[in-house]
Design goal:
With 374 residues, the chain is an alpha/beta fold. It folds into two domains: 123 residues, Glutaredoxin (3-Layer(aba) Sandwich); 230 residues. It is 67% helix and 6% strand. The protein is built from 15 helices and five strands. It has a five-stranded mixed β-sheet with strand order 2-1-3-4-5, sandwiched between helices. Strand 3 and strand 4 form a beta hairpin. It starts with a helix and ends with a helix. The relative contact order is 0.12.
């Protein structure tokens, strides 16, 4: 009799335990964003929860880059009458409630699994209970504030790979010298950079980013620029006639033709395009999110103005540099004119050009080292 009672007690306990965890087969909808910081933590946490409760039916919906999932989330917000402050990601919706924010999900969702029923959430108006914590924006576009876009664009503009573009532009200042040419050719260079970066932001050149060359290619050109700048610095202290006294005149003439050819508008445009490929390989931050957005057809027209603004900010340092050099050359030309005597004007211009070339070369040399070692 005692043995029978023990068996009955064991059976009772087994049934009781099974009943308490029977709803581990719960159904819940989890809405998150790929670039949402808190979502990365909740993703990892939910991976663990699914291992603990293998019968848990957890449906995951990425909403930043998927229109259908985003609209489904909005429908649940409306149906469950979820307040504005709770309308964000990450959020888990069950048949009788919701957990909005990282903290409620990670602290309370597991206990809810053991208490909830099996039904999946339905788009039917009903009274539900929700736990609200801090959430991130429900839409990827809400993450793109003016300061965030501007800051990210400037950060990319001064990255080592993008600095390479600025240094190439500065070396062209030495070759061109004339302020009008610097202005026109400089804007051609900027248009080439804009052209490549715009196509990249619109989803092109994915094949290039995956090549091995992009990881170290810009450093090789950084070495070349440092050597070129060093030779220019040396030429400031040593007379050019001494440096070139053993060079054949035909070689000199050929080098001059090459230099003249390299400063043509079409060539400068091509150079800008080629060096821009090194820059896009190192782009990061918001521009990559905008690129992903544009690849989603339903967000193309929304993303495009953000892309244009981002690229204009990205190019702003180069634009300011060109206009600054133009203004500097113009001011020195006016000072030269005030000298009156033609010989003095010619001597002043030669002195200024030599000093200008030296200053640019020093800057290129220093920033080139930054590109190589950073």
């Amino acid at each position: 009799m005692l043995k029978l009672n023990r068996i009955s007690l064991i059976i009772f306990l087994i049934v009781l335990l099974s009943l308490s965890f029977v709803s581990a087969g719960d159904c819940a909808y989890y809405f998150y964003g790929d670039t949402c910081d808190d979502c990365q933590e909740t993703n990892t946490y939910l991976d663990t929860i699914e291992k603990i409760f293998p019968d848990l039916e957890l449906h995951r919906y990425e909403v930043y880059y998927n229109e259908e999932n985003f609209n489904l989330m909005l429908n649940y917000f409306d149906t469950y009458l979820i307040s504005e402050e709770a309308q964000g990601v990450p959020i888990i919706i069950t048949s009788n409630g919701y957990f909005s924010g990282k903290e409620p999900i990670m602290n309370l969702f597991e206990s809810q699994i053991q208490e909830n029923d099996h039904d999946c959430p339905q788009l039917e108006e009903k009274e539900v209970l929700g736990v609200v914590g801090e959430v991130e924006p429900r839409s990827i576009l809400e993450r793109f504030g003016f300061l965030q876009i501007t800051g990210s664009a400037f950060a990319n503009a001064f990255s080592p790979a993008s600095l390479l573009l600025i240094l190439v532009l500065m070396l062209y200042f030495i070759l061109l010298r004339d302020k009008e040419k610097i202005l026109r050719r400089g804007m051609t260079f900027i248009f080439g950079v804009f052209f490549v970066h715009l196509l990249f932001a619109l989803g092109l050149f994915s094949w290039w980013i995956s090549t091995r060359f992009v990881g170290w290619g810009y450093k090789i050109f950084g070495v070349v620029l440092v050597i070129k700048a060093f030779l220019l610095i040396v030429s400031f202290f040593v007379d050019k006639k001494i440096l070139l006294k053993n060079v054949n005149q035909k070689v000199k003439d050929k080098c001059k033709k090459i230099m003249d050819y390299s400063t043509k508008n079409s060539i400068i445009f091509v150079v800008a395009i080629l060096f821009s490929f090194l820059s896009i390989s190192k782009m990061s931050g918001i521009i990559l999110s905008l690129r992903s957005l544009y690849l989603e057809n339903y967000l193309q027209m929304v993303a495009l103005p953000f892309v244009i603004y981002y690229l204009l900010v990205f190019l702003l340092p180069m634009i300011i540099l060109i206009l600054g050099i133009y203004a500097l050359l113009e001011s020195f030309e006016k000072k030269a004119e005030n000298k009156g005597d033609e010989k003095k004007v010619d001597a002043w211009n030669k002195h200024f050009i030599k000093l200008f070339n030296f200053s640019v070369a020093v800057i290129v040399f220093v920033l080139g080292l930054v590109i190589i070692f950073v």
